[in-house]
Amino acid sequence: MARNTRERLLEAGLKVFSEKGFLGATTKEIAKEAGVAEVTLFRHFRSKENLFAETINRYSFLPKLKEILPLIKGDPPETALKKIAREFLNVLESKKKLIRIMHTDFHRYPDYIKKIHESIIENIIDLLSGYFNELTERGFFRRINTQLAARAFLGMFFSYFYAKEIKELLNLRKNDLEEIIEGYVDIFIRGVELQNMSEEQGVCLGD
Fold it and tell me: Which residues partner with 193 through β-bridges?
């Protein structure tokens, strides 16, 4: 029962925070949305800040990345990266209201919330960087700064999402998504794969 109540509060938190942001949402509204007394919310999370921190952690890309990485370790890098990109964009799409309002209000958030958010991003980068390190050790990627590579990879797709959903600067058809994923992954792979380095060395040697 306690677990179900906690889940309901997180779902209600996601809904209300997505509509009103951290600053505009109240614990009373969230508790009402969850169908519980406000005191129950405080019993589970102690404060609105704690509930918000848990909400953005639960519904970020981090849990999904942890879930899919073990499943794609045997896939060719290009196939695996397309799966990661697809799941990343799915998470962004499903949480776009929350992302939009966080982008607008983020500079006004308490330092505690900012640090939680930054920590989640760093954990995602570290996880993806670790996967890139494995690909390097297996001979798929050349020696690179995998932290920067992880930021660059996710940054490409977030930029696409941001332009399309937040800024609405792109007028893309719905079926362009797979083309975007294919193109971005190809650009990334060609930049980091070990084969490229071998080919360039061959050209220099006159092979």
Answer: 141
- May I ask the CATH architecture of the domain 2-55? Orthogonal Bundle (1.10)
Q: Output the six-digit token pair for 54.
A: 């848990």
User: Which residues neighbour 15 within 8 Å (Cβ) at sequence distance 6 or greater?
Assistant: 33
pLDDT at 196 over 60: no
One-character DSSP codes across 47-107 = SHHHHHHHHHHHTSHHHHHHHHHHHHTTS-HHHHHHHHHHHHHHHHHHTHHHHHHHHHHGG
Would you kindly state where each structural domain of the chain is located, as residue ranges? Answer: 2-55, 60-204
pLDDT band with cut points at 50, 70 and 90 for residue 112: confident
The answer to whether 100 and 166 have CB atoms below 8 angstroms apart is: yes
Whole-model pTM: value is 0.83
CATH of domain 60-204: 1.10.357.10
